[in-house]
Amino acid sequence: MPLPVGQLYQRKELGNGTIGSLKDYSIYTVTAATDIDYGVALDIQDNQAVVATKAPIYAISVKRAYVIGHSYDDIENDHWLKGEKIGALRRGSVSVPITEDVDRLDQATINADGTFRPAKPGEPVVGRFITAGDANGTAIVDVNLTDMGTTGTGATVDKPSTPTTDPSTTNQSAGTSSTTGTDKKGDK
């Protein structure tokens, strides 16, 4: 039996979280803090992935490379489970769920549930759609996500730019050696 050709046995659009082009892409691995659908925008909280509620975003979730389940019915509702290591696309093209009609090359932004739509004037942009799509369907968005232009939210304490030293432990005599070191050269 010959292999199926074209769209004979499948829809034209790709499923959410499917890599959308042959160009290079970059996928990181993060732990899911909650259940996460494929193709939604991600943010990081407490070093774990959560669904992003606004731009800027960290990445977009990609779908599994394999199926876990005992029937084909499991595939339709499959998603990442809390605690799983998930794929997070930071650069490349991926199929995403859209809530409004989009045209090719429209600027993309996200909704509060991590889904995508065309950006309106003044809204932050996360990428560009490289395919058109109908509302409540999918479209392919191209992203190159960096942390440039974002405001820091880290909890790290500022570190001094020069190391501080304790004067009581500093060797104040130039050219002398200490006998507390492990170097045995010259010791007899």
Provide structural commentary.
The chain has one helix at residues 73-76; strands at residues 26-31, 41-45, 48-51, 59-61, 85-97, 107-110, 116-118, 127-129, 138-144. With 188 residues, it is mostly beta strands. The longest helix has 4 residues, at 73-76.
Number of helices: 1
- Taken as a percent bin, the fraction of beta residues is 25-35%
- Arithmetic mean pLDDT: 80
Residue share in helix: under 10%
Uncertain segments are 1-9, 169-185
SSE string, helices as H and strands as E: EEEEHEEEEE
Summarize the structure.
The protein is mainly β and 188 residues long. The chain has one helix at residues 73-76, and strands spanning 26-31, 41-45, 48-51, 59-61, 85-97, 107-110, 116-118, 127-129, 138-144.
Fold topology:
Blueprint: E1 26-31, E2 41-45, E3 48-51, E4 59-61, H1 73-76, E5 85-97, E6 107-110, E7 116-118, E8 127-129, E9 138-144
Antiparallel strand pairs: 1-5, 2-3, 2-4, 4-5, 5-9, 6-7, 6-8, 8-9
Give the key terms.
nine-stranded antiparallel sheet; globular; 188 residues; mainly beta
